[in-house]
Design goal:
The chain is of the alpha/beta class and 127 residues long. It has a domain of 87 residues: Cupredoxins -  blue copper proteins (Immunoglobulin-like). It has 2 helices and 8 strands. The strands form 2 sheets. A 4-stranded mixed beta sheet has the order 2-1-4-6, with no helix packed on it. Strands 3-8-7-5 form a 4-stranded mixed beta sheet, with no helix packed on it. Strand 7 and strand 8 form a beta hairpin. 22% of the residues are buried.
Length: 127
Amino acid sequence: MKKSNYLIKLCVAALLASAMFLVSGCYSTNGQQGYNRTYPTAYNSAYVVRMADIHYYPKKIVVNPGQRVTWVNQDRVTHTVTSNRGYELDSVNIAPGQAYTHVFSHRGVYYYHCRFHPGMVGVVIVR
């Protein structure tokens, strides 16, 4: 009986250790860990901006003229990428799992927001 209790405890400990290992690789939902990474090769872009937790990650990027930026919606709700002034950025609705790509041709500072979530803001600086 003692041997079976030992085996049960050993199996439970192994399962808990495996679960902790798997969870440790997950992104934080508070925007502090993992969200500042860019994945340019996945979208053939200079930068990839993630949309998650009703935020853009990162909020500010700096690119050169002619570089491509892709916004990827990894949230549970639809978002947009809409210029605060002018029409440089004017995406259609970006559903979860979808993306929007834009090539910046001219130098400048481009502030943008989500039409559905006014507090969701970002900026692209083209130098």
